[in-house]
Amino acid sequence: MPEKADLKDRLAAVRERIASAARRGGRRPEDIVLVAVTKYASMDQLRQLIELGHIDLGESRVQQLAHRVAQIEEFLQRHHQLSTGRSPDFPELVRWHMIGHLQRNKVRKVLPLVRLIHSVDSLRLAEEIQNAAAKYEEPVEVLVQVNTTGEKTKSGVVPAAVRHLTEQLDTMLNIRPRGLMCMAPFVEDPQDARPAFELCRDIFNEMRARGVGGEKFNILSMGMTNDFEVAIECGANIVRVGAAIFGPPAAPENAAD
Ligand SMILES: *Cc1c(COP(=O)(O)O)cnc(C)c1O
Fold this sequence. Notes:
TIM Barrel; alpha/beta; binds pyridoxal-5'-phosphate; 16% strand; 8-stranded parallel sheet; 9 helices
């Protein structure tokens, strides 16, 4: 099965590059969490990735997230019911990350599905989460998405407003702010993404130094296929990588997977 070998090799290569970038930045490879972004992956690839022991998965659209969570739940259950043929790497559970823009009317649907929302970018969205989360025992963990590029079309909070929004989140009982997320502008040379990552890191560090967001405010989610090594050098401890793991986007799948 050549495809499986490809996926395994690509995952190993990404992990190796993450480890080197971490060491260059004086950090331990195991301190960087790799979220595999599955938006262009086939269900087959997704199952293979889980069989390889991978547990952190990201989706950017609510519809596809819900669809995939359901399919993967079923896959995990079936696997755990089988007494033979278990792969030793097979995880007990997977953790889903919502990484894309979240509309307020989708909040109730998303909350039960995900471990971390990377993309909180307004007080109104936060208030919706606060209300919808009242029925859960644990606060919903979120990151504030920072617009580091000044591009109007990109979502995210302008740098000057990040601290204030985080302080507001911190007063909400059902929300726990865990850190910041940003996307760099798309550039040919990944080094050109560095200023955006450094800006986000500086905001993050200053907030932590002042205790904004509390003790658990310790996640910096930045870096994608094109620029994750630079992001790690700039302090990222979560990277969100799709194409480098799954290959370049294929033609859209039909619904029959
Ligand atoms: C698609 C996406 C990624 C991953 O992009 P790749 O270039 O495939 O690695 C990361 N973060 C967000 C928010 C995305 O939408």
